[in-house]
Amino acid sequence: MSHSALKNSHLEQLNSEFFALLSTRFSILKIDHLIMRIGITHLIKQIGINAIFITQLMQVRLLKMIKNYVYR
User: Fold this and answer.
1) Which range of residues forms the domain containing residue 51?
2) How far, in Å, CA of 21 to CA of 5, rounded?
């Protein structure tokens, strides 16, 4: 699988699990754990966001920022 396909696969997995967590109102710590498990915490650090301290509204923006960062 190519590097680009792997990134797409990770983003798709993040997207589906992310919104599943939001719909069941899991804690922000669960979102942070999910991000770390998928292996993109370096992106969070590079764009200067700590997922533990964001609101649910900001989590949606975080996902968009990650996608924009990955596809630069």
Assistant:
1) 3-70
2) 24
